[in-house]
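seq as requested:
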Amino acid sequence: MRIKKAFTLIELLVVIAIIAILMAILMPALRSAKEHGKRIVCSSHLKTLGLANVLYSDEANGWYVPIMDRTLGNDRYWPANLLFRELIGYKPKNAVANEGWNAPREYLCPSDRISIKRIQDTQYNNWLSYGYNLTDWYFTDWFGIGYAGHKNTTVPGPADELIFTESNDWWLWWWGANYEDGWDVLGQDTIMPYKDVGTDGPTLYRHSEGVNMAFYDGHTAYMKKEKVFIKDAWDAGNPGMWSTFKHYPPTDAEQKRLPRP
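struct tokens:
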């Protein structure tokens, strides 16, 4: 009768070591593939927002969805704008007063660990993953103005001007993309740490040190942080995609040319 030979302890350890090596090789690739998938979903959401903004201008006599419009009452900020929400295909479940705070899936990035859990941050409701570029209005007391938003006639290069990108607040601006003082230093998913150090309106680089962006013509792009915020450009006042102004901050005369309904 033939006796079956059992594994020795050494052979078993060799097998375990081989499995561990294979896992070490495969896991980064699997994580990378998973992250790439999340980035694609995020880009698709921003594409939807960008195209909805273009359609909004067709419906609103050339006006893009406003960042804020105080004539609209509770719906004064863009995430709660009823026409915009209809254009992205959102249908509310209940006609309740706070329906504007219920985030459509297009407002949420799968890599955003906070918004998808609907966790309320101190003083701020982080229930969306994308912010609207407020740079053209940031130089003034923008929160005190009644309206902030462009017309299609005041955006000279729609394919070159940024409108939406990744954040955890409903608005963002050029300096908030400064990864040297903001994202890389604090590494937070919530808003308050950035507010507390004066880096408000942050851009959050959720995807391999990069970010998805939507432009006024409706197209999207992925950029690494080094191309999103360039310190030399900031120091020289050359905003590029961040502002319709050629130089920043704008002059008083340039400020007066911002559109008002």
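The first strand starts at residue 68 and ends at 69.
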